[in-house]
Amino acid sequence: MCQINTDPMKSQQGYLDVVVPPDILDFPTSTDMVVREGSNVTLRCVANGSPQPTISWRREQPHSRTLPSTREALKAEGQNYSIARVTRDHMGPYVCIASNGVPPSLSKRIMLTVEFPPAIEIPNQLVGARVGRSLTLQCSSQAFPKSHNYWVRGDNSLVQGPGYDTEIVESGYSISMRLIIESLTLADFGEYKCVSKNYLGEAEQSIKVEHVKTRESSWDPVVTKLPKHSKGKQTSRTVNENNIEIPDAEESTSSASLALRVTGNVFLVVSFSLLCLLWRAYASVSPRLLRVN
To answer: What is the pLDDT of residues 148-186, one digit of tens each?
Structure first.
């Protein structure tokens, strides 16, 4: 207030508003959190300022800008953000933003880590293969904290070496595993296990590799010598894998000749019968042609 001591006294009043940019308080604002999958989580962000700041929440890139519990981006507001029955999909950084119209706005990053035991998926539980071929077995797992992954056959762990090659590709909490078996032998057929472990638990899945026999071609006969008497002379017969006799070349030739002769005789008989029928028809139409002078 400004006052002048005159008669009468004069005075003037003014109002001063002091604005303060937002300030996020370290306490009780949440710090980075580690929780078990399935539990309930509440993230908290508290700020001071003048006027009183408003709080909004979003997920940090490369995650979706939409929050798990709302379909609209950047619409979650309030000091507390709650997630019921948190899952591994909720894992990642969250950002609270405090603003009150007085620049600059202030933000804080809170990392939410969700722990869960390993889970394994395999594309096929039964795989067929042939001797001499290469074979690739696949297995994928999800776990956090990071799991220890390996292949087992019987009581032995399979590591990279002669006859085996292993590949592991990591992407976040997901791991893809491959076991490559070069030049399969009969000893390689059987059951293989994909195993994943962390301190929360252990998971495994089995893959059975079965021997697929190479099918013999039906054009390759199995030759078996069997006694066959014909005119006092011993000959042989050829049979295939189904025990069906395959005639030899000599028998095939004679059979073909016989069939040709039979076909020719039948043709002559049919032709002669047809000529007789035509002659009779012609004679019935023109009887005068048959008179004998």
So the answer is: 999 999 888 888 777 889 999 999 899 999 999 988 999
For residue 75, the Cα-to-chain-centroid distance in whole angstroms is 36
User: Per CATH, the architecture of 17-115 is what?
Assistant: Sandwich (2.60)
Which residues, 6 or more positions from 21, have their beta carbon under 8 angstroms from its beta carbon?
49, 100, 102, 103, 104, 105, 106
pTM beyond 0.70: the answer is no
By the 8 A CB rule, do 93 and 112 touch? Answer: yes
Q: Give per-residue pLDDT as tens, 28-46.
A: 999 999 999 999 999 999 9
Q: Where are the domains of the chain?
A: 17-115, 122-211, 249-288
Which phi and psi (to 5°) does residue 213 adopt?
Answer: -75, 145
3-state secondary structure of 249: helix
Residues facing residue 168 across a β-bridge:
177
| Annotation: CATH topology of 122-211 | Immunoglobulin-like (2.60.40)
